[in-house]
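Narrative summary of target 7.
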Amino acid sequence: MNIASYIDHTILKPTTVVADVEKLCAEALQYRFAAVCVPPLYTKKAKQLLEGSGVKTATVIGFPFGYSAIEAKIAEIVLSIVDGVDELDMVANISAIKNGDWEFLANEIGTILPVIRNKQKTIKVIIESGVLTKEEIIKCCDLYGVAGIDYLKTSTGYAEKGASIETVELMRTYLPAHVKIKASGGIRTYTFANQLIRAGADRLGCSAGVDIVQQSLAGSRG
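Modeled conformation, tokenized:
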């Protein structure tokens, strides 16, 4: 298995500087990761560095808490599209999920999705599964499955609990087949990454992508 092809090589810390993004993109080109995921400020820079390589440029919307207004998320999306983004990792309104306000959440994705589809971009919705109940996760699978998003993503990486095998298995059980899964948060070893893929993850969000690939190569040589 080519583990690198599953990885969104990620840097989202608030102290990220241009040199970090340049290093991230150089590593993505070297290891042939699926995408890089960078703060919106660096979308244009990453796109330039990866031009023509086939490595996708992703950024985050409403990050990391998801409770910004729908109109604010739309503005972020439009600006990111102008900057050349390929994939958008948008945090759902976690407060609305905890309130059980599914009507608001349906309106949020229903408002945002046409903007993304019109420009033929990829949308990954982050639900922060580590702070949700099993029932809330299932309800999210139902809602976003019907909406027809591209990926449902487990976590931002900023909550206490990130991706888990159990959550990925749960999401795969309740999502329609056409909706993929991105696991993220706390993925630092090849063993865990491989377990998440076997559980049903199609993409992995990692800041430790290089280490994971090197562990994979070491294992294949061992």
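The chain is about 45% helix and 15% strand.
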